[in-house]
Amino acid sequence: MDTRVTKKKLGLKERYAAMTRDLHWDTTYQPMDKVFPYDRYEGIVVHDWDKWEDPFRLTMEAYWKYQGEKERKLYAVIEAFAQNHGELGVTDARYINALKLFIQGVTPLEYAAHRGFAHAGRQFTGAGARVAAQMQAVDELRHCQTETHAISHYNKYYNGMHNAPAWFDNVWYLSVPKSFFEDAYTGGPFEFLTAVSFSFEYVLTNLLFVPFMSGAAHNGDLSTVTFGFSAQSDESRHMTLGIECIKFMLEQDPQNVPIVQRWMDKWFWRGYRLLTLVAMMQDYMLPKRVMSWKEAWTMYAEENGGALFADLARYGIRKPKGWEQACEGKDHISHQAWATFYQYGHATAFHTWVPSKDEMDWLSSKYPDSFDRYYRPRLEHWDKQAKGKEGRWYNQVLPMLCQVCQVPTLFTEEGDPTQISLRETDYHGMKYHFCSDHCKEIFEHEPKKYAQSWLPVHQIYQGSCYPDDINPASPGDSPVREVMRYYDVHAGEDNGDFTNSKDRKHFRAWSGRMKPQGMGE
Amino acid sequence: MTSKDMFRHIGDYPMIQQDTEDKFHGKHLLYLHWENHPMFAAPFCIPVPRTLPFGAVIMEVLPELYGEHPEFEDIDWKSVQWFNSNKRFIPDVGKSLEHHGIGHKSLIRFRTPALEGIRAETGF
Does some domain include residue B33? Predict the structure, then answer.
């Protein structure tokens, strides 16, 4: 009879330890500092990596199992969605433009986040932090893929999605999210986690995901909703990592506090500027609205964020600089952004339109202090133009951009929505322009970094965004048209007013619905 | 610029100024902003020759940028207040931008006291 070998099975905790921290060893051929230089140069002092609390005790084995199950469910729904012509089930073809903004501007961020976490997952000296970052790197890659798959069904039927990854690298409004993440992942691993895990995912994530995912639910977009559910459990892990990293840095050494505070100041403001695009989507692009941007900001930023910073006060952390300005901006930024995209609607890769009267009334009711007074008159003027003999107005000349957030300098002064907020500084014999005190301050802390910003408007004038047959010194009567050709954005099909779009025509013909909600036909 | 520079990096970090004047095909960038008229979302950015006379800014450039605003044709150019960034100046229409100290990436702001756009008549 064979001797029976009893295999001792590891408990959950032991298995977890074996599969994470036990994978670490201290190097002997080379000094540790040389092998892990990146988590030192930022100035964060760590005395004891063992104090890092792993925010989610997940082994790779369990990770694959959970994610695999979620994936199967997600793809079953996507398949059913395609079979049932889900692309016609949405409230109105205008809704698709929110998805275009998502696939153009958000999905590539998932990939950028993957790169950032892969880097952090190599560079932290502590094994717990490395493993957490590595798992998140895999999550982010998966999100990029599943979002692409969930939305690709729409690409078969609607315009404005066919070249999204290339647009992300070139198009003016997509340089806003792109530069945000490039700024983050060219920082060290601690700054990256403060930027993405804490400021973006912990403080601001609800303001990104709720508008898109609830927007999808309200507008009949089952495939995107299912993606949202599938990503949700990952997001809560990501948020936990953000707060853990902050607490770890703050508890390790008092020297870390001012560094972390400055990063919070910077990344709160960078994130807030980026969310301008979401604010606009939420108030203007959803045919069936969820809540206003102002309501979302009040709930998720002011109430939840306010409680968070009250909690962090015991470490000597205060609310980020710019908090007050951001709260004041909730009455304005969505309207200012939509007016910008409307007038540059021939230079986007989605459609724009003037809201219907009902929709403007909704905006009036949600923004009693600002909409009628500052924003309604120009929309009504444009509506009159579009319907009259003048025709739809497009602004043919390119705008000034902020050197840091890269948004056109469209924001107004705190307390005076009639004055555009403009700031400038001199650096190495050249002027640099900003949308706000906060973007200016970010520049002044690290001017060498932002002096190299790739600003799409300046690049167009330098000649980096014209097709080969165009002389950049004299690009002809419509430079914007040539730039669109270079972007592979099909003028009039991928952009322009929704009213005359193929998307609208097709949706009406295919769905047999002649009266899209709210368009007042 | 004040010395708040706190930039930390590993190894050599090259100095790259992306938008130096030599990259704009003999022109330089000029920003223009008509205050209180947010029908135009943001100040404009255009390449212009350094030698452009200020008169041409008024007669040729501005109508192209702002001509579609209903208040534009009512502008009384004699009463316009001009600013080079925040510094008030009186333009000489026969002299060049360069003569006015307006160089690469300068911002010209102008106010039309009788035409207040968003604050009054048009609302934009």
Answer: yes
